[in-house]
Design a protein that fits this description.
globular, 390 residues, alpha/beta, Aspartate Aminotransferase, domain 2, three-stranded antiparallel sheet, 2 domains, seven-stranded mixed sheet, binds pyridoxal-5'-phosphate, Aspartate Aminotransferase, domain 1, 12 strands
Length: 390
Amino acid sequence: MPPLLQTAPDERRSTVEFVTAPEPTGARVRLRPEIAALPPYRQGRPAPADGYKLSSNENPFAPLPSVARVVAEAANEINRYPDATALALRERLAERFGVTADEVLVGAGSVALLAQFILAAASPGDEVVYSWRSFEAYPGLVTVAGATSVTVPNRADHGHDLDAMAAAITDRTRVIIVCSPNNPTGVVVTAAEFEAFMARVPADRLVLLDEAYIEFVQGAGADLAVDGRTLIGRYPNLVVLRTFSKAYGLAGLRVGYAIGPVELLDAARATAIPLGVTAAAASAAIASLEPAAESELLERVAAIAERRDRVHAALAEQGWPVPRAHSNFVWLPAGEATIEVAERLFDAGLVTRPFAGDGIRISVGEEESVQILLTILSELVPGSQETGSR
Ligand SMILES: *Cc1c(COP(=O)(O)O)cnc(C)c1O
C-alpha cells in the first residue's frame, strides 16, 4: 500500500513543508490473522428507485407518528449521555415479562447482546454451537471472541437438528445458540423439541434463544412453537434475546433486549461497550410499547404474517419446495440456480438475499412487491426449462 502523501525525494527539500509518511518497509500491521481473514462487510445492494428492498428483513411500514415524535424530542438532549442502563425501558419490559428490571438487559440491537454474551462465556479454544445455515452474524461474532464455531447442519426440512446440536456439545462448549424462527429459513423450533434439548444440555453451559422474529409466529403451527416467555425462570443457563428491529420497526435505532438470570446478564453487561443504547432508541422503544402504539404495530405484524402466508402458499403452489415460514421472510431453496434467480428478481426491482448454491431469503415487504415476486418466480420454478436444476 502506498503511504499517505508520499513525495518524490527532491520535493522534500522544496519550500513547501510536506508531511511525509515513513518509508514503506513492506511490513504490514500485525492483526489477528483470523480477523484479517474475515470477509469485509458488504451490505446488500440498495433497491433501485422504483424497486423494493427485500434483503434485510426490515419492517416495510413507516414509523408511527407517536414514535417519530419522541425521537424528535430526544434530539433536544443529544448533548447529554443516555442513561447507561436504560432503566425506564428495562422497567417497562420487566413489568411485561413478570421479572425484575435486573433480569432485563438492553443493548444496541440484539446483535450487540449476542456479541456480549459470547464474549462473556467463550474464550480462545472454547466452542460455540449453532445450527447452519442460520443467522449470518453468528460466525463473525464467535471469531471476534476468539472462540471456535461448531456448526450443525439443518435438518432436511430446514429446521434445527437439536438432537445433533446436543450431541455436538463437548467439554469445550460454552455457548449454544438456538434461533427460532431461524434466519434465513423461517422454521421454528417446537416447545417440545426445545425442552427435550434443554434436558440434555449441561446446566453450566449458556443457551441463547434468539427470538428476533417471535412476533411473527402466528398462523398454522404457531401454537407448537417455542416461546421464550414461557421459559423465563425455568433454567439457570437460558437467556432469551428479542429485538425492536423487526416487528416494532426500529431497525435504524438499534435496540434489543435479553431476559435471563441476573448473574448471566451482569457478565454480558461487563463485556458491553458502554452507553450503546441512545436515549432516542430507548424512548422510541418505550413509545412503541404504549398500548395504542403497540396494538397498531401488532396489526402491522399480523398484516405481514398474512402476506407471508399468501406468498408461501403461492410459491408452494408453483412447485417451489418452500419450508413453512413463521418469520417476516420466506426461504426459497433455489440450490444451484440461486444466483440466477436472485439476478432475475433484481432485474425486476426486487433486492433479495441470496446464499450462493443454497437458497434465497426474501423479506416480506410492501404489498406491491408481492405480485412482482410471484410473477417472476412462477417463470423460474425448479424443473421448468428456465433453470433446469433440481
Ligand atoms: C435481525 C436479527 C437480530 C437482531 O438484530 P438487531 O437489529 O441487532 O436487534 C438477531 N438475530 C437474528 C437471527 C436476526 O435476524
